[in-house]
Amino acid sequence: MERRRAVGRQPSLRLCMRLAFALFLLAAHAERGLAAASNSTSGGKSDGKSGGNGGGKGGGQSGGKAGGAKKGSTHGAKASANEAGKPAGDGIARLVLLRNNSFGAKCLDGSPPGYYRRVGYGGGTNSWHIHFPGGGWCATRDECAERATTFLGSTKYMPQSSQGSWVGGQMTGILSPRHPENKLFYNWNLALLAYCDGGGYAGSAGKVAVKSSGKSAVFMQGDAIVKAVLQDLNRTKGGLGSAARILVSGCSAGGFPVTRLCDSVAAAHPKANVKCMIDGGFFLDAKDRLDGFTFRSIIQNVSSLHRFTDSKCSQGMEAWKCMLPEYSLKTVSRPVFITNALFDYTALKLYNQLRDTTYQVNNRCLRQIIWSQGSLQKAVTSNQWKPFNPKPGECDATSRSIIQATVTDLFNRMKSSVEGEKNLVGFLASDCVGHCVATTSQWFSPPRNNTYMKDAVVNWFKGKLLGGKLYF
To answer: How many CA atoms lie within 13 A of 9 on its CB side?
Structure first.
């Protein structure tokens, strides 16, 4: 879904809300794992709509058999990286499977890992965009076993290309192959990782015994998967070894490996201009409104179960904290651009645990809050929220107060993390409700100072945008 509008025009709130709901439906089948993990940890059952990452029963299943991937019906192509993107410039990303990788890396179900490759052309021939899509996490063995039967745990259920599939639905915003929607990166080589390890691309637990979902074991090898992909990208003709520019980005749960890998990718390619970007992944170590630090428990469980280690980051803090940019960004020296929706529905669901409130009701509540504010920037920075009169049943006082508190907390923490750090730039899209805004049509959404996100990112990569500032 694209917004076709003249540059400089403010997007209408009605359109923003429609976009947000469409994005929610997409996220519901790309990221059910996070909501399922939240319910598992806090002892509640999913209602099928809770959690900005989607709802659904247990284990991070994430609706994996939907979206063009019925069990056994869609298998990845046997392709090398050199075969993956022909012809160049067709805009299609094709699945590359790493069947005999030297790291022995496997997806949760034991299928070969892989990535979607789109071949660059023209001025982008020697430039690379490596993207880590989101998809939540699995925090227990049973959750990982169930996830292994879906496209979030197996490449068996992933489409062979982005053409006519849910993968193609992600090719918008900064991933778009079209100009001028994606002014700088449209013709770059793209490697979009197939997220199938359930541990934020960082697990090293190896083969783990399970007894559920028809599985006797799963493989938690996110770290090995990433190493195998990077190795293949380096070996392929015209790959990372000859890159002049590299952007490493990640959405939601995919934002975590960005902080983990940013400096190491730069060190491995000293001649390249390497910069990194986190989109919708600025998760907070915040106390939720009902159950305490539920999200912290989820991350701690994921870190322990998958045996996450990061020698550089964890030298000065507990390993699980390295999964949260709020902490891990302090250990990154390369330039990082952080984008987030101010009204991030995933965060609002995750931290506020609004299990009895459907997304649609929450959406109307958000809409009324936005409309009630003459200036969101002033309301957030001064913490002065105007009253409004919701319709009966649409937005009770509790929902309103916790939404406002979460939004203010996100703003303050992101501002505190970015300001004064010359290698960091923050951008809050305040016009729409959403999640992973840079990989959707909200890529066009301007903040209050009329700087478009799509232009800000380009200027930042070209060195024309100063760091140490939050754009709002």
So the answer is: 9
